[in-house]
Amino acid sequence: MDILGTSLRVCVSDLNASIGVYERLTGAEAIRFQRGGVAVAAVGCFFLMSGPEAELSVLRKITATLAVKDVDEAIVDLKAVGADIIAGPLPTPIGRNLVARHPDGSIFEYVDRKQDAEA
C-alpha cells in the first residue's frame, strides 16, 4: 500500500478559535465537515475535532489518519499483516475511510480520495 501522507488528530474545545491558529500555522484554509456529532476542520496536516466527549473519547483512541491511494488495497495489506478492520470502509465527504487495529494494538484511520466510491 502507498501511504501518501499523515494527518494529526487534535481534539479541541473551541473549533472556531482553533481554526484560526492552525490556518495561520499551516498557511492552509480549513475544510469543515460534520462526522456524526463531531464538527471537523481539516487544516493542512491537522484534523481538528470538537463535539460531545462520548464521541471524542472514541476518536482519541485513533493514533493518526493515513492517506492512501485506495482503501481496498489497504485492506488487503492490513489483513496480510494480521490487522483487524474495526470500522468501514465508509464514504466520507472526500472519499472513503476505514479504521484498523494493528497487531500491536495501535489504531489508525486510513482514507482515500475516491469521490465516486460507494460504501
Automatic annotation (TrEMBL):
Gene3D superfamilies: 2,3-Dihydroxybiphenyl 1,2-Dioxygenase, domain 1 (3.10.180.10). InterPro entries: Glyas_Bleomycin-R_OHBP_Dase. The lineage of its organism: Bacteria, Bacillati, Actinomycetota, Actinomycetes, Kitasatosporales. This is VOC family protein. It comes from the Bacteria. SUPFAM superfamilies: Glyoxalase/Bleomycin resistance protein/Dihydroxybiphenyl dioxygenase.
